[in-house]
Amino acid sequence: MTVVEEVEVVVAHNERATLRVGDVFLKIDADPTRTDVEVEAMALAPIPTPRVLWRKPPVLALAALPGMALGRLGEPSPASSLAWAAAGAAVRTLHDAPLPPWSGRQLDELASRLDGECEWLLANAVLPTDLVTRNRRVAEAALRPWKPVFVHGDLQITHVFVDDDQVTGVIDWSEAAQGDALYDLAVLTLGHEEHLDDLLAGYGTDVDRDVIRGWWSWRSLVVVRWLVEHGFDPSMPGCEFDVLRSRM
Q1: pLDDT tens-place string over residues 166-215
Q2: d(Cα 149, Cα 43) in Å, to the nearest integer?
Q3: Which pLDDT tens digit goes with each residue over 67-97?
Q4: pLDDT for residue 1 is more than 50
Q5: Does residue 210 form part of some domain?
Q6: Is residue 12 part of a domain?
Q7: What is the 3-state secondary structure (H, E, C) of 143-184?
Q8: 226, 220 in Cβ contact below 8 A?
Q9: Which of 60, 133, 134, 248 shows the greatest Cβ crowding within 10 Å of its Cβ?
């Protein structure tokens, strides 16, 4: 008889779920196009990614990465400055790579989403008006033309794995596309502003920090409704609401 290892639910909501069984991750996605993007993006990315074991839609099986995540939103990062710098170097390698053949979200789409989510936040009294208004002004710094690069698109701190101050891999590529380099840098340091200097030391070039702050505000404003509707709490210490408050 085959011994079935314990099944760990990594994340689950009504759009997708990720399970871990031993050293295998099973990703189940209701939208197969997201899995298509993920598989192709990992094949194109010039940085370490999980090995695809098999795919039988709607399930994608991936090998676990060695090491640990760079950190978690709302918690201090256990990773060293050298690990953050290594993450910055990996992101720069990705951004210097040839563009993927599909386009990403356009500027007018991003501006429209910001408008709609701010209206929802105010109409439902989710956050104080002055907090939303201030962060909306900050977010406008990010909504400017940019030179498109190969972006991960959802480069959360939990998506970058490190071991011995080296990047062992980056997971969850379903949002990969052509986009703004500073968006990736902002998402990775969301709620961990103290590591921005370390990340940029590895990234190796000057960036407009007002734009990064703008993306921090944009991301935190537009994600609140999705988080609430899918059972997550943006008011937890160090999470999106605290990021928005830090701009006041």
Answers
A1: 999 999 999 999 999 999 999 999 999 999 999 999 999 999 999 999 99
A2: 16
A3: 999 999 999 999 999 999 999 999 999 999 9
A4: no
A5: yes
A6: no
A7: CCCCCCEEECCCCCHHHEEEECCEEEEECCCCCCEEECHHHH
A8: no
A9: 60
Is 222 strand, coil or helix?
A: helix
Instruction: Please report where in the chains the tokens 């939303």 appear, as a residue.
Output: 132
DSSP state of 26: E
Q: How far apart are CA 81 and CA 111, in angstroms?
A: 34
Across the beta sheet with 68-69, the strand order is 68-69, 160-163, 166-170
Report the 10 Å Cβ neighbour count for 138: 21
Residue with tokens 């710098």: 85
**Structural domain range at position 179:** 65-245
Cis ω before 100 (30° cut-off from 0): no
What is the average pLDDT across 33-39? Answer: 96
Percent composition of the chain: helix, strand, coil (DSSP 3-state, to 5): 45, 20, 40
CATH code (residue 161): 3.90.1200.10
Structural domains counted in the chain = 1
